[in-house]
Design brief:
Blueprint (H helix, E strand, L loop, with lengths): L2 H9 E2 L18 E3 L5 E3 L11 E4 L2 E4 L9 E6 L5 E12 H15 L4 E7 L2 E9 L3 E10 L4 E10 H11 L1
Antiparallel strand pairs: 1-2, 2-3, 4-5, 5-6, 6-7, 7-11, 8-9, 9-10, 10-11
């Protein structure tokens, strides 16, 4: 496991049965994240009463450096009612071998992605991998400049019900 994927995996805390009364699925393990001072952020859960760990801009909270590990930057989006609808992770620039190790690690943990697409726009190649179940969608995204052995890497983890509601409320 590469260093970035390992640090990100350490950031994630296993959450059994987070959204359902039934057996936990692989994506449930990603829904709960531990940040500084033992603060737990749960996808679909309430924003903690004290949010001095982030800077707010509208409905998006960008976590302050040093409050999380494994990514270059992390933010979350909330609904009007204060529930966490989405986590966004920016891994920064990763080399091809680290990208493949990250994809392999998530595939081992979550199974085969439901979508693996590659598209091109000018000299930029995009690769997106998606894992999804009834309550959660996890998407890894890579933006390559043609001919380079590195890419900008990011991920989004969304609560399906809250993300749909959030987009509807913005229209």
């Amino acid at each position: 496991m590469n260093k970035i994927a390992f640090l990100f995996a350490l950031t994630l805390t296993v959450c059994t049965g987070c959204r359902s009364a039934g057996a936990a699925g692989p994506l449930d393990a990603l829904r709960k994240i531990k940040i500084e001072r033992e603060t737990i952020l749960m996808l679909g859960g309430n924003i903690p009463p004290v949010t001095d760990f982030c800077n707010w801009r509208g409905m998006t909270c960008t976590l302050k450096p040093g409050t999380f590990g494994g990514t270059a930057a992390m933010s979350l989006t909330r609904t009007k009612s204060g529930l966490i609808a989405q986590f966004q992770f920016d891994y920064g620039v990763m080399f091809s071998d680290a990208i493949q190790a990250q994809i392999d690690d998530y595939t081992r943990m979550l199974g085969k992605p439901s979508r693996d697409s590659i598209s091109k726009s000018g000299s930029i190649d995009f690769r997106e991998l998606t894992w999804s179940d009834s309550s959660t969608t996890f998407e890894l995204s890579y933006k390559y400049v043609t001919g380079r052995e590195q890419a900008e890497a990011s991920a989004t983890l969304s609560d399906n019900a809250l993300t749909e509601h959030h987009h509807e409320s913005l229209d």
